[in-house]
């Protein structure tokens, strides 16, 4: 697939850098009175609007890792830190649309390959995700060496399983296995059973995740939560919803998407608050909640309706095509900046969030064209 050219406003050495970023008038929603129809693309092609929303989802992931005071407790109680920082906890919860969006868009965009490719070819096409995973696990393992920790075989195995300092790397094996399951059921065209299975797996993930104090009276172990997160327990449902949207051609109005976002966001805050206040489950520990389903689906449906002008479309493709690299790299800047700047107030943490986004994006713009970098960043 041909890589999109960067628009002039993103060319670092462009003499016309100033004033060339597109105006918001070039980006609009489909009519709220006439639902219209989402973008129609060739099977497997990228949608610039989805790509732009991928960048917004990346910003949401960075927010999860930077804004809440839970990340800056100096070994204190994360629960108490969360109670003292309600605004940070709210920002964290409202950023939780990001990972469901990535899974939804993956199911939507990979479904064409699931139909066209036989199983062997499909496995080969997703195997690069595991190669990328191993590479970035090795990159983040260097942090242990920098901290002076000996890299023993047991520590190396633990890092390989959960990513070590790369706390976000679980996404890759989870996505890989969810896409493989999607390929198994893709050609049946019977959506009720896989969607039901996906929802059942999602409920299992809730039971052994944030709902464990409610069901078992005590939180699940960290190992159990990591296993539930790394396996396609929470991902499969979103991947299949994305695949179903692609296969069925069903359309939903922008108004429906906005209602789902509003309802999902409200329920996410309510669900997280109840779990925190009643069952002492910190809001920032909730990777996925029941309300994450309407929240994530609403954001994805909205991305299908956003109409982009030419420059916005180029910008969307440029940023979105780097979405994986942005996601994989940003934690290095979180650690690097935090080593010299320990944000205490909410304003400082918001500045920290912005610094990580800018530093990660600028780095990717610089190294993206380096030989061999594309396969490890896209």
From TrEMBL:
GO CC terms of this entry: plasma membrane
Compartment list: Cell membrane
Membrane topology note: Multi-pass membrane protein
Cytoplasm in keyword set: no
Keyword Oxidoreductase in record: no
Transmembrane portions of the chain: 55-74, 94-115, 127-146, 166-185, 192-211, 223-245, 257-276, 288-306, 318-337, 349-367
Keywords (A to Z) from UniProt: Acyltransferase, Cell membrane, Membrane, Transferase, Transmembrane, Transmembrane helix
Residues covered by the Acyltransferase domain: 48-366
GO aspect biological process, one term: enterobacterial common antigen biosynthetic process
Entries under InterPro entries matching the protein: Acyl_transf_3_dom
One Gene Ontology term of the molecular function aspect: O-acetyltransferase activity
Cross-referenced PANTHER family: O-ACETYLTRANSFERASE WECH
UniProt family annotation: Belongs to the acyltransferase 3 family.
UniProt-recorded name of the protein: Acyltransferase
